[in-house]
Design goal:
The chain is mostly helical. 51% of the residues lie in helices and 10% in strands. The protein folds into two domains: 67 residues, Fe,Mn superoxide dismutase (SOD) domain (Helix Hairpins, Orthogonal Bundle); 104 residues, 3-Layer(bab) Sandwich (minor pseudopilin epsh fold), CATH 3.55.40. The chain contains nine helices and three strands. It has a three-stranded antiparallel sheet, sandwiched between helices. The relative contact order is 0.15.
């Protein structure tokens, strides 16, 4: 399998004014493409790994040959995380989660605002680069977590429902160093319908 860059499900300017067009274009065309190139290079001499789904590779990093393990972890994680991230946003998003996920968040965290506060805290407190996540953990419970760099919840045995990229390349052109402003803006583009689909798939 040679990994390729999939088109976004919307135009680069679709998430304006919350995420600007130039950031989306660079993030997708340059940053994600670089992860794909690195992943393909790491796997080129291991044809037996090329047909294994990326989620499976990243869920069992110990089985990856040591010589390419870090590259697969970093570049494979970058490819997988971004492929999921684009689908977690949409034009006209935001609002409140509904259906089963909304009820589950209320049961787990007390109400949506308390969940949002915990998620924001995970996003704001991630030192350096990384991600904030809402996942189903290994016990089958909803949990807010954070991963460094391009590490993915799959490597920890969790299943992502919603994720936010807090690398500076995700926001610096518009928000400069104001990560908090970016986090608050992002809630306006969250695709809760897709999050609901993710939740139903793992529950």
């Amino acid at each position: 399998m040679i990994y390729t860059l999939a088109s976004l499900p919307y135009a680069y300017n679709a998430l304006e004014p919350y995420i600007d067009s130039k950031t989306m274009e660079l993030h997708h065309n340059k940053h994600q493409q670089a992860y794909i190139d690195g992943l393909n290079k790491a796997l080129e001499t291991y044809p037996e790994l090329q047909n294994i789904p990326l989620v499976e590779l990243l869920s069992n990093l110990a089985a990856i040959p040591e010589g390419i393990r870090t590259a697969v972890r970093n570049h494979g994680g970058g490819q997988l995380n971004h492929s999921m991230f684009w689908l977690m946003m949409k034009n006209g998003g935001g609002g409140l989660p509904k259906e089963s996920l909304g009820e589950a968040l209320k049961k787990r965290f007390g109400n949506f605002e308390l969940f949002k506060e915990e998620f924001d805290r995970a996003a704001k407190s991630r030192f350096g680069s990384g991600w904030a996540w809402l996942v189903i953990n290994t016990k089958g419970d909803l949990e807010v977590s954070s991963t460094a760099n391009q590490d993915t919840p799959f490597s920890e045995g969790s299943r992502p429902i919603l994720g936010l990229d807090v690398w500076e390349h995700a926001y610096y052109l518009k928000y400069n160093n104001r990560r908090v402003d970016y986090i608050q803006a992002w809630w306006h583009v969250v695709d809760w319908d897709h999050a609901e689909e993710n939740y139903r798939l793992v529950k």
